[in-house]
Amino acid sequence: MDAFRGILKFFLNQKTVIGYSFMALLTVGSERLFSLVAFKCPCSTENVVYGLVFLFAPAWVLLILGFFLNGKSWRLFTGCCVNPRKIFPKGHSCRFFYVLGQITLSSLVAPMMWLSVALLNGTFYECAMSGTKSSRLLGLICKGKPQECWDELHKVSCGKTSMTPADNEEVKLSLQAQSQILGWCLICSASFFSLLTTCYARCRSKVSYLQLSFWKTYAQKEKEQLENTFLEYANKLSERNLKCFFENKRPEVFPMPTFAAWEAASELHSFHQSQQHYSTLHRVVEDGLELSPEDDETTMVLVGTAHSV
């Protein structure tokens, strides 16, 4: 049992690495599936558009999905049209761009993986570049090759050119090599940029390493318990309402946060050294929210805990 707990703890501690590894494997598998099943280079003047669509369209879809599946996106934008102050709070106007940058960077992981894998494979790039009409690119690709390379480059991917098989294969290998070079350049650039942004964020951190570790642990535990509490209170409220409906009686007062408390707890969190609140919910509970007269139906009053100390 202790060994099982140790293994489980190890996987929980490495869940970010495991998640990215799984994403990488999924990306590789998806790219191979696209290449073998869906992708058929037309070997015509449409090569450029066809190849670029297969190269960038999945990356764009993954970027959109990244924004959709990121909880911070909806925390940031929910209700912003009704109350723009939610995304541009007084005194923290730049907070919106900081959080948006975090969301964008995390959403770029999957598209960058797709582009890297697709470029390393070389199939999409080879098809796209073989349809180019640029004299500069044609001179680079067909340097030292017969005239047929200039006239029939779009047929190289299908092997239907008038060139010898050796020349046709050489051009294909040259295009694939260019694609792989771009792929490795993209991987190296993304890795270096990720390192720079992480170092910059840590250098600008207002808390120590140990406190930051505690903060991450607290945030994860709060998220887990918040979901469990949502489920518990939703079950209790639904049971009360159904019971009152079928028994035709008035409901008892049910403890719920005020509207203002929901609004305050949904705001973006900003850490202040003078007030060590590790989440927006933590700040709301510590600072407190008085019950307004129009909210008498609720009994969960968040009074000023911090102000009364």
UniProtKB/TrEMBL annotation:
Recorded topology in the membrane: Multi-pass membrane protein
GO biological process per UniProt: ATP export
Compartments in which it is found: Membrane
Keywords: Ion channel, Ion transport, Membrane, Transmembrane, Transmembrane helix, Transport
Gene Ontology molecular-function annotations: monoatomic cation channel activity
Main localisation: membrane
A Pfam family matched in the record: Ca_hom_mod
A single Gene Ontology CC term: plasma membrane
Spans through the membrane: 7-28, 48-69, 96-115
Family to which this protein belongs: Belongs to the CALHM family.
Cited PANTHER family: CALCIUM HOMEOSTASIS MODULATOR PROTEIN (PTHR32261), CALCIUM HOMEOSTASIS MODULATOR PROTEIN 5 (PTHR32261:SF8)
Protein name: Calcium homeostasis modulator protein 5
Organism: Zalophus californianus
